[in-house]
């Protein structure tokens, strides 16, 4: 996407003032909850009771120290990292392979398979959780990170295949013909040509999927019920229940859970934008 | 590359694509297909007094006689009304950003930020912001509208509109980014031509910009309509727990409640099938609409 835009003619600075005011208003609305979370996390409870909205006075790190020592936040954080990494590895691996087949081969059922992916994207996870819960209990995977890794990997496949097929189809076909003439097998072509050329699409996909897995609540809540198996999102709801009367501590917990995504956003805003737009443009 | 390998045999060629599809297919069967078949089956099973399971529609009858089910369905319906609001807002902001105001990249960055925040994080924060002493009431008081102040999430009347506001807060940025990307790919000449022909700001955008955004608008609206039916659990769970009473219970939340709190899998399954049917209906409708509009333009 080009980051330039059309500039209407004959607009002076004065005429831009109402626009600026509207945009500043929406920007403040957008960041206010984040501001509130940050300033509250650095306040003492006394300070918060007297002044909910102002800057912290004095600034305290105690809430973060407490969040780390009094709850299981470090453990949950680690679990979230593990679940996110493995779900992304599994879903990306199986989706690239499948998308390659759909984009490069002609076979019976190809169109049906691709269209089914679009249909699967709209299935509410709430519909799937009960049978999956029974299944996970039966195969003794309940309260294990493996259970949610399997489910997340599966849930990510339709969108991943959809995005990757569009991308693979945009690669120049001459490259594949040349590779075939040079005696590459299809698997060679996949590994040595398609994948290296697809790095930008893969990075985008991984970033968007990471956002989904890191932030997901319902599935984590159902399948990770034991205190030690929880990831951050269900963990936070427990944490909130334990410390209902200590608002600054709760905000410190939510801030810790948010930091990885904010960092990812600061460094890769472009990737988020591209990934989310890519699904729509096709 | 030296020719080391013999050319693949024809039989292998035929099954090769299916081998590539196999791992993804196994996961899809496990995570989507198997649960859907199971949920439909278990929604039709019922326990008789003798402990033997028989087939019937008792679960569906019980669901249809349950007022909370109707409340939940209505609440999802009410949430659908946030979609036009967020679409129009996102469209206006995207057009303003597109007109290339100073600092548009910064504005885009800030306005998109809520979309990357986890719903539990947004929900937890808004519980404070919408509380009795929260920022919303504080602002209302300071501008002399004290009579409007509420316990926003504690009032049966206001809880759904309040949740709607929070959903709009988080989802709108996605629309802005989407529309802006599409706007930037438009032909500039057409807009310039419209200006030369003397079109004013409104005429230019309504008659030139909007028709070209139709595709991406449709995409956003469909995605958000589905979100209102299928992805609002985390908002309700973290902000209200379905309350006060059952006033903010939505379908997903009620399914979860029956499955894991009330331990009535039959009812949960019937509810799940109703939700599945509703989302399917929405998609079929959208596909038909799209086909119709294609025929008309053809």
Please tag this protein with its features.
heterodimer; A: 282 residues; mainly alpha; MetI-like fold; 2 domains; 13 helices; disordered N terminus; B: 298 residues; two-stranded antiparallel ribbon; 14 helices; 2% strand; globular
- How many helices of chain A in DSSP terms? 13
* Separate helix tally of chain B: 14
Radius of gyration of chain A: 23 Å
| Rg of chain B, nearest Å | 25 Å
The tally of domains of chain A stands at: 2
End-to-end Cα distance of chain A: 14 Å
Which H/E pattern describes the elements of chain B? HEEHHHHHHHHHHHHH
* Span between termini of chain B: 49 Å
Supply the number of structural domains of chain B.
Answer: 1
What oligomeric assembly is this protein in? Answer: heterodimer
Strand content of chain A: under 5%
Q: What's the CATH topology name of chain B?
A: MetI-like fold
What does this structure look like?
The complex is a heterodimer of chains A (282) and B (298). Chain A has 282 residues and is an all-alpha fold. Chain A has helices at residues 17-41, 45-50, 62-70, 73-104, 110-120, 125-138, 145-169, 173-181, 186-197, 199-215, 218-223, 232-242, 247-281. Chain A folds into 2 domains: 14-65, no CATH class; 72-242, MetI-like (MetI-like fold). Chain A is 75% helix and 0% strand. Chain A starts with 16 loop residues before the first helix and ends with a helix. With 298 residues, chain B is mainly alpha-helical. Helices cover 72% and strands 2% of the residues of chain B. Chain B contains 14 helices and 2 strands, in the order H-E-E-H-H-H-H-H-H-H-H-H-H-H-H-H. Chain B has helices spanning 10-44, 58-64, 67-80, 82-98, 104-112, 119-129, 135-142, 159-184, 188-196, 201-212, 214-230, 233-239, 251-261, 265-297; strands at residues 45-47, 53-55. In chain B, a hairpin with a 5-residue loop joins strand 1 (45-47) and strand 2. In chain B, helix 2 (58-64) crosses helix 14 (265-297), helix 11 runs antiparallel to helix 14 and helix 13 packs antiparallel against helix 14. Chain B is globular and about 80 Å long. The two termini of chain B are 49 Å apart. In chain B, 41% of the residues are buried. The mean pLDDT of chain B is 86. The interface between A and B is large, with 99 and 104 residues.
């Amino acid at each position: 996407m080009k980051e330039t835009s059309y500039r209407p003619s004959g607009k002076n600075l004065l005429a831009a003032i109402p626009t600026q005011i509207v945009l500043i208003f929406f920007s403040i609305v957008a960041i206010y909850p984040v501001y509130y979370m940050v300033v509250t996390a650095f306040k003492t409870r006394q300070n918060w009771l007297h002044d909910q909205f102002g800057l912290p006075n004095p600034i305290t790190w105690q809430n973060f120290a407490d969040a780390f020592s009094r709850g299981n936040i470090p453990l949950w954080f680690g679990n979230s990292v593990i679940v996110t990494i493995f779900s992304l590895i599994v879903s990306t691996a199986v989706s690239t392979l499948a998308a390659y087949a759909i984009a490069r081969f002609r076979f019976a059922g190809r169109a049906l398979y691709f269209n089914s992916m679009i249909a699967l994207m709209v299935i509410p996870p709430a519909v799937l959780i009960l049978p999956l819960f029974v299944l996970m209990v039966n195969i003794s995977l309940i309260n294990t990170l493996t259970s949610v890794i399997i489910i997340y990997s599966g849930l990510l496949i339709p969108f991943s295949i959809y995005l990757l097929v569009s991308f693979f189809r945009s690669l120049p076909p001459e490259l594949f013909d040349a590779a075939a003439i040079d005696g590459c097998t299809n698997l060679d072509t996949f590994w040595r040509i398609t994948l290296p050329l697809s790095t930008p699409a893969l990075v985008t996909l991984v970033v968007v999927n990471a956002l989904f897995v890191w932030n997901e609540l319902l599935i984590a809540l159902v399948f990770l019920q034991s205190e030690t198996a929880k990831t951050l999102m269900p963990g936070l709801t427990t944490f909130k229940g334990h410390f209902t009367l200590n608002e600054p501590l709760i905000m410190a917990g939510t801030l810790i859970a948010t930091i990885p995504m904010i960092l990812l956003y600061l460094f890769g805003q472009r990737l988020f934008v591209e990934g989310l737009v890519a699904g729509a443009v096709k | 590359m030296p020719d080391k390998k013999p050319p693949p045999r024809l039989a292998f060629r035929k099954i090769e694509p299916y081998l590539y599809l196999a791992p993804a297919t196994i996961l899809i069967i496990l995570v989507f297909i198997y649960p859907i078949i199971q949920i439909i089956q278990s929604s039709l099973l019922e326990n008789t007094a003798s402990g033997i399971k028989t087939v019937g529609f008792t679960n569906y009858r019980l669901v249809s006689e349950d007022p909370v089910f109707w409340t939940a369905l209505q609440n999802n319906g009410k949430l659908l009304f946030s979609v036009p609001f967020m679409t129009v807002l996102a469209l206006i902001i995207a057009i303003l950003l597109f007109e290339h105001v100073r600092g548009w990249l910064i504005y885009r960055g800030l306005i998109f930020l809520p979309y990357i925040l986890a719903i539990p994080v947004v929900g937890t924060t808004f519980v404070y912001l919408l509380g009795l002493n929260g920022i919303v009431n504080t602002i209302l008081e300071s501008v002399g509208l004290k009579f409007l102040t509420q316990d926003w999430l504690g009032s049966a009347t206001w809880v759904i509109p309040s949740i709607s506001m929070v959903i709009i807060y988080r989802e709108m940025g996605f629309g802005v980014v989407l529309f802006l990307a599409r706007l930037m790919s438009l032909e500039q000449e057409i807009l310039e031509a419209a200006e030369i022909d003397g079109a004013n700001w409104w005429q230019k955008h309504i008659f030139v910009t909007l028709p070209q955004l139709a595709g991406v608008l449709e995409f956003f609206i469909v995605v958000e309509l589905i979100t209102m039916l299928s992805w609002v659990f985390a908002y309700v769970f973290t902000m209200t727990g379905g309350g006060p009473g059952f006033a903010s219970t939505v379908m997903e939340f009620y399914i979860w409640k029956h499955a894991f709190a009330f331990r009535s899998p039959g009812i949960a399954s019937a509810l799940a099938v109703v939700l599945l049917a509703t989302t399917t209906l929405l998609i079929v409708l959208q596909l038909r609409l799209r086909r119709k509009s294609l025929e008309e333009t053809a």
